[in-house]
Design brief:
With about 180 residues, this protein is an alpha+beta fold. The chain has helices at about 85-95, 150-155, 165-180, and strands at about 5-15, 20-25, 30-40, 45-50, 55-60, 65-70, 75, 105-110, 120-125, 140-145. Strand 5 and strand 6 (about 65-70) form a beta hairpin. The longest helix has 18 residues, at about 165-180. It is elongated and about 60 Å long.
Length: about 180
């Protein structure tokens, strides 16, 4: 198979969370196409499991959806070089107030492969220690604890639609769900 070849990449806009580029691509069939690219530095999310087996979730307003969502604690990397495990531990504390001494990688996902390179590493955190929540200035977050079965049912009922949250919960359920009951 012939290869796709980028002829040109133009920066269209620089944003707070990502940069937007337009690529001019040579397609193997000889056509030239314009493709959009959202360049994102990456993120980390956490499946945080308390001693009682309940998972910590955060409820917050999402501007893109114009509503609140129930999600795993998560956030963007402070820079491309930041280790995702460090971001996961930071976001856990910022958004929930809990800390832990160790996180375990559960899964890595690319959220929207057609036009965005955002990669989210999803971690498991146990042995949680309560502390003080300190969200970012633009965040209003409530912390809730749910059972794995309740969360799975909300996924199946289309009440949870966030991809990182669905992937994190179902990966945790597949890997540890039967052992945690």
């Amino acid at each position: 198979m012939e290869e796709f070849r980028r002829l040109k990449r133009d920066l269209v806009a620089r944003g707070v969370l990502f940069d937007y580029y337009q690529d001019t691509m040579l397609i193997p069939n000889g056509n030239v196409a314009k493709w959009d690219l959202i360049d994102n530095k990456g993120a980390a999310a956490v499946v945080a499991v308390r001693e009682d087996g309940k998972l910590l979730m955060v409820r917050q307003y999402r501007n893109a959806l114009e509503r609140e969502t129930l999600e795993l604690p998560a956030g963007g990397l402070n820079g491309r070089g930041e280790p995702t495990y460090a971001a996961a531990m930071r976001e856990l504390e910022e958004e929930t107030g809990y800390t832990c001494s160790h996180v375990e990688l559960l899964n890595s996902i690319y959220t929207t492969v057609a036009f965005c390179n955002e990669k989210i590493d999803i971690y498991l955190a146990r042995d949680l220690k309560p502390g003080r929540q300190h969200p970012d200035e633009d965040e209003v977050i409530s912390v809730e604890a749910w059972s794995l079965e309740e969360l799975k049912q909300m996924i199946f009922d289309c009440k949870i639609q966030d991809s990182k949250t669905i992937c994190g919960i179902l990966t945790y359920a597949a890997k540890y769900g039967a052992a945690e009951k």
